[in-house]
Design goal:
The structure is a single chain. This protein has 90 residues and is mainly α. It has a domain of 27 residues. The longest helix is centred in the last third of the chain and has 40 residues.
Length: 90
Amino acid sequence: MSGGGTETPVGCEAAPGGGGKKRDSLGTAGSAHLIIKDLGEIHSRLLDHRPVIQGETRYFVKEFECKQLMSRSIDSSRGNRNEKRFIVTT
């Protein structure tokens, strides 16, 4: 503008703080550290399936052991019945 006065920047042209410093896109070093920490947490929640797999494995083993114990008890009771029949028939 003419007139020799100082011009004020309009709208988004104004720099925050009035200084000529440029901020990087990550902000300060502390905020970069927080972003890296958050990314690690997101990675562990989305891509690390070890806790889920370990839980499923424990459940499978527990169910397998229960069924195995039940089948052993059924087999032993059948064996006792067969022994009684064998004793009675002889």
